[in-house]
Specification:
Elements (H helix, E strand, L loop, with lengths): L3 H4 L2 H10 L2 H11 L3 E2 H5 L6 H13 L3 E6 L2 E6 L2 H34 L3 H12 L1
Antiparallel strand pairs: 1-3, 2-3
Helix pairs in contact: 2-5, 2-6
């Protein structure tokens, strides 16, 4: 069962909102390699520096990155904690679906054996007529 308090966590809303944009996911992927300046994060995209800064701010507000200012250079680093929280919540859903898919598989196996493999026999008959 999904923990309702986690499912309505505003911090998770910020994380998933930040991850909803492909450019921001790309910036996070770049930060896996190590710290980067805002200019480096925006380099692969044909967007203004102002737009890059806005994307960085969204990632920062979600807690996904931390920005350090050294004079005029703003360097960003990946933060692990919000990703771990999101992964934990998604793991709950994964366990739910795995259980349901296992139940479906068991049901289909029962149906198949109850029908005496009728579908397999029909498939064999169809191949014979070709």
């Amino acid at each position: 069962m999904v923990d309702q308090s986690t499912a309505t966590d505003p911090d998770l809303d910020l994380v998933f909102g930040a991850l909803a944009d492909g450019k921001r996911r790309g910036m996070l992927a770049r930060l896996i390699e190590g710290p980067a300046s805002i200019g480096e994060l925006g380099a692969p995209y044909e967007i203004s520096k102002q737009a890059v800064t806005k994307h960085v701010r969204v990632l920062e507000e979600a807690g996904l990155i931390r920005r350090e200012v050294d004079g005029r250079v703003h360097r960003c680093r990946l933060q692990r904690s919000p990703v771990d929280e999101a992964r934990g919540w998604l793991g709950t859903l994964e366990r739910y679906w795995e259980g349901h898919l296992d139940s479906l598989e068991a049901f289909l196996a029962t149906e198949d054996s109850a029908n005496g493999g009728a579908q397999n026999n029909a498939d064999d008959a169809e191949e014979t007529t070709r």
